[in-house]
Each structure stands twice: as C-alpha cells, then as structure tokens.
Specification:
alpha+beta; Beta-Lactamase; 4 domains; 50% helix; 15% strand
Length: 456
C-alpha cells in the first residue's frame, strides 16, 4: 500500500475509533443513574403506579392488589408489593436483589432510588389508616447494557455515518497534504534518473514545512552539482578529443612521409601504425559525434521520410555488407512516414545501427530491416544473424564504451559507441530504442519514433 493509503487509513480508523469511544463513555455513564427520569421506561406506567398507590392509601391495600392483578404479565414482573407481614400481595417470590431495597423502606424513608439487577428502580412506603403498610418497588427502567444496546440500534448508526464521513474527509485532506510532497520528490528522482538534471523540486514544495523545504533545497543542490559535474565531464571529453586530433593529424602526415621513402623493411610496422592511427581517429570521431543531454539541444527543424532514408542507407552499405558476403532484406511500409529531425543526426544514428548489424553478422549472413506504421509512431527493427547478446547485457550495450565479452572486440572494429550514439540521438527525437534477441536470429534493435503531424 502506498504512503498516502497508509496515512489515510490509519488516521481515518483512529478518528472513527475516538468518536465511538467518546460516544460510548459519555452515554454509558448516564445509563446507570436511577435518578435520570428521562432514562426510565414507561413514564405513563410510573404515573399510573403512583396514582393507584394514593388510592390504596385512602382505601386499603386490596385496591392496589386488584389493580396489579389486572395488569399484563410484563407489567407485573416490574412491580412487587410487600405487606406488613412481609408477604408479596400476589404471593410471588421476591427477587433477592430487591430485598435490600424493600427492607430500607420505612416511615422515615418513604421513597428510595436504587439499582435492582442493574436496572433503575423506585421504592415507596405507603402507610395505611388501620396500621397496615405497603412497601412497593417499581423497576422503572432497563439496565445500562440494555439501554446502550437500544441507543446503538436507534441512534448510533447516524452518528457513526456522520463521524465516518466527516473524519474521512479530514483524514483524506491530511493524508494528501502529507504525501503529496513525497510524490513530488519521487517524480523528481525519476526525472533525474532519466537524465533530466535541470529539474528542480524547490518551487513545487514552497509553502510546506521547514523540514521538507530543507530536503528540497538539498535535493536541488545535489542535482545542480551533478549537472555541473556532467557538463564539466562532457566538456573535458570534447576538449581532449579535439586536442588529440592535432597530434593525430601530424602522425598521419609523418606516416605518409615514411611510406614515401619506400623502405620495404618498415612496411609491416608502418601498416600497424596506420591501423592504430585509423582506430584512434574513429574513436575521436565517435566521441565528438556523441550527443549529450542538456539545455544546449537544438530544435528539430528538419524532416526526413523513413522509408526513403532506410532504403538509401542500405544501398550505401551494400558494398560493406558484400565484403562479408552478407545482404540486406528491407521491408518498407506503404505509407509516407515523416519524422522531425535535426541535420543528419538521425541518419548517423540509423547508420550506426546498420553498421553494427553488419559487424556482428557471420559471413554469408543477412540483415533484416523492417519498417512498420503504428498509429502516431513508426517502428524500425534491424535484426542481424549473429549470436546475439546475453540477456543480462541487453541494456548495458547502450552504455558508451561497453563491449560484450564474446563479440565486441577491437578486432571487429567496434569500441562501444555506436549504440550509445543511437540511443541518445533517438531520445533527442522523443523516441525510444530497445534491444532483444530475436528467435532463430541474432540481436534485434528496435527504434520507435513519433511521426510528424500533417494536415491536408
């Protein structure tokens, strides 16, 4: 469960339980007081009992006995009357819990309030003219447990619903307030992890607590330092690459002069020097063409048609493929697929993917190039016929200078920049690139690009 859900559920349950406990304690204390007349059951019956007791005082106890005999059994169970001899007027056994209350009634204590079986009860002492007396106990209400149960059944559910709705709204707002800054931080970390080091979270968290403000400031400081370090690193690589070109050019000139002297004994060594110089030239060229992410990106101000571009690229690389007795199999789409680009950047990226497929296809192999239209996007899939790449390294092959142990060796001519260039270029075109091992084939590189909207 998310942090928002845990905070919301926890606070909501706590609020509801607190409301229920408060209602329970407030009413439970009142239910046990026998003097609370508004808690009595049957106030009409109480008035009728007192009226007949007055009539019995004027006349004789038989009047009250006759009235009680005419009452239903439910009423009789709530009224007990004992004469002077201690006999119940209807010859019923007196409940043991009622005996103390009956014994407390006398000429000096003519009315008493107490609990009988936890039920509020009232006792009356009624003297007679002939010296007789009548002691009567009337169970005026129910026990506090019974009253609480009735309260729950009649009034509790509306209180529960209102408390649940009110506390739910308050807890929702509280949980949202507490979890939203963390959601913003999570979004920021994902964008930074994706390479957007210019993203700042402090403006979003402005107005929150001091601790969150300090955390946001520390986060922005960290990303600013990372952005500066990445920029310095890129500048260093570019500067070093530029500086290497000058001595490399002088080396090429000196190599040409040495070859003109026609010293046959040095030809093998000069060839080795030439290959090393060419290899270094290729590395420097790829480093200088490696796209970078940052605020210096230029707009996509050009347009290219994908079917025509792939057809032209495969035609240009046919001779290079023929050197390994490999051939291209191109399947284009019938629709016109226009993609926004910048200069020749996309052309170079797709050329790197095709060259990569040629390098790692075996002699006599084939390279499949498939172009598909998918709604507002187009997909380009290039599949070689090599041995593929281990599954654990499929994402790593897009890192600069990464080469697998099996195939990507210096002898094959690759040094781990082709796919890195392609990935960054495709990302700058708002597209995506992925690699996977195709069934019964080698490595497949799939590029997805957004199509340019055209109106007619």
């Amino acid at each position: 469960m998310s942090l928002f859900g845990r905070v919301f559920i926890g606070a909501w349950l706590t609020a509801v339980i607190m409301v229920l406990v408060a209602v329970y304690i407030t009413h439970f204390r009142e239910f046990g007081d026998p003097r609370q007349k508004d808690r009595w059951e049957g106030p009409e019956l109480f008035r009728e009992v007192t009226h007949n007791l007055r009539m019995a005082r004027r006349h004789d106890p038989d009047h009250f006995r006759h009235w009680l005999e005419d009452q239903p059994a439910k009423t009789q169970r709530r009224i007990f009357a004992v004469d002077r001899r201690g006999e119940e007027i209807l010859n019923r056994p007196v409940p043991p819990s009622m005996t103390p209350m009956l014994e407390s009634l006398s000429f000096r204590n003519r009315e008493s309030h107490a609990l009988v079986d936890k039920k509020p009860s009232i006792g009356f002492f009624v003297p007679q003219r002939d010296g007789e007396s009548l002691r009567v106990v009337f169970i005026a209400g129910k026990s506090k447990e019974e009253l609480l149960l009735r309260f729950i059944l009649r009034n509790f559910w509306p209180i529960l619903v209102l408390a649940t709705l009110a506390s739910g709204l308050a807890c929702y707002l509280l949980a949202r307030y507490l979890s939203k800054p963390l959601d913003n931080l999570r979004t920021a970390t994902r964008r930074v992890a994706a390479g957007d080091l210019s993203y700042r979270v402090s403006p979003i968290l402005r107005g929150h607590s001091r601790e969150l403000g300090e955390l946001a400031a520390d986060f922005d400081s960290m990303t600013a330092q990372l952005q500066e370090s990445m920029a310095e690193q890129r500048r260093l690589i570019k500067d070093v690459s530029h500086e290497l070109r000058s001595p490399l050019a002088r080396l090429q000139v000196a190599l040409g002069i040495a070859r003109q002297k026609n010293v046959q004994a040095l030809d093998p060594e000069l060839d080795k020097i030439g290959k090393a110089a060419d290899y270094l030239e290729d590395i420097i060229g790829d480093i200088l063409s490696l796209p970078v992410s940052g605020g210096d990106e230029r707009a996509l101000d050009d347009v290219v048609e994908i079917n025509s571009l792939l057809t032209a690229l495969t035609d240009d690389l046919k001779e290079e493929a023929a050197a390994k007795q490999a051939h291209f199999a191109v399947r284009t789409d019938d629709r016109e697929l226009l993609v926004a680009t910048r200069g020749s950047s996309l052309t170079a990226a797709l050329e790197n993917i095709l060259r990569n497929a040629i390098k790692y296809s075996p002699v006599g192999g084939h390279i499949d190039v498939v172009i598909r239209h998918q709604g507002e996007r187009c997909q380009i899939q290039v599949t070689d016929s090599g041995d593929g790449v281990p599954e654990a390294e499929l994402e790593a092959i897009f890192r600069p200078f990464y080469r697998t142990d099996e195939a990507r060796s210096r002898e094959s001519g690759g040094f781990g920049l082709g796919l890195a260039i392609a990935q960054r270029t495709v990302a700058q075109h708002n597209g995506s690139i992925q690699a996977f091992n195709a069934p019964n084939a080698g490595l497949a590189v799939c590029v997805t690009l957004p199509l340019l909207e055209t109106s007619f």
